[in-house]
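Dear Dr. L.,

I hope this message finds you well. Following up on our conversation about the binding site, I have prepared a predicted three-dimensional model of the protein together with DP6. For your records, I am including the exact sequence and ligand specification that went into the calculation, followed by the structure tokens. Please feel free to forward this to your student if that is useful.
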Amino acid sequence: MMKASAQTHPNIALIKYWGRNPNFPSHLNIPTNDSISMTKETIHSDKSNIELLTHTTIEFSEHYEDDEGFLKTETDLIPFNEFQMKRIKKVVDPLRRLAQTVLKFKMVSENKFPTAAGLASSASAFAALTTATSKALKLDLSQKVLSTFARLGSGSAARSIHGGFVRWHKGDSHETSYAEQICACNEFDIAAVIAVIDRGEKAVSSDVGINYAHSSAFNPVRITESQKQAKKITKAILNDDFPTVGKIAEKSCLYMHSVMMTSEPPLFYWNPGTLSVIKSIINKRKNEETEFYFTVDAGPNVHCFCRMEDLDLAHTMLRDMGIPERNLVRVRQAEQGSKVVEQHLF
Ligand code: DP6
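The resulting structure of the complex is given below.
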């Protein structure tokens, strides 16, 4: 049977990826700089039943006349549209070539978190797809090689192949642009509360917005600084130096948003709620010497990083700002990256 399933967690970048290297074909998603992330999972509480996890099943068979893919929701199986199928095939086609088969596939993918939660992540989706596809095609690929194929679907997916802290090396070819773990889970004490400011879909997806990075005059500076930041933050993670990690992560986030806001067209992913949370984190740090730091991806939601023992404090601060409990999600490092599972979705 050529059928397999995988489960994968999303990741949050501390050193951001925002731009493809123009010297390589854009479909390869070779980035302009190294990036560093934490693979994250939800800490369960009574107040939120959200689980940051994607589950995907894929089967190759002569019974399928066409490639087909579906998103599984609680009530429906929704077929992926043409654009989504094209992106899925960016990962499946090269693996199918490697396996020397022309068999068509059926795939079903399910996010274990509400689709309209502002938490959707293509990173977990494409990493799960890569792992399941490689297994179904009986390709015996290392995590490193899997990360290069996941990258073809979505850059940040390369990092979700691994658990703990992960570095995606920019590289200068398909083979050398891979992700590897730099620190296993719990070697560095960190957790986060995600403040979901807006549950809606973003107006401009990362996949599109990232193409505008080169039009910002600040982009070359961001690229050079990112390489330095990646080096410094790796050292700080390995030394369990939380304030240095937090400060560098904030800088990387602000550099990325500076590029976004000054690109053509300009991209404003923040809304007023985003800025309020950022200011509260900075004020709390200044006035009460709490070790809280922020990061924001291509959207309005804020991750408030803290030490594990300060999670309640961070949660209370965000709740007291008026953010409803159901929009506060506690996360920690996920030990495992993308893994093969026995449960199939069809
Ligand atoms: C802002 O190309 O991985 O999250 O595939 O659209 O999810 P999508 O995005 P991707 O770019 C993500 C960019 C980022 C920063 C990061 O994760 O490094």
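In brief: The chain is about 35% helix and 20% strand.

With kind regards,
A. P.
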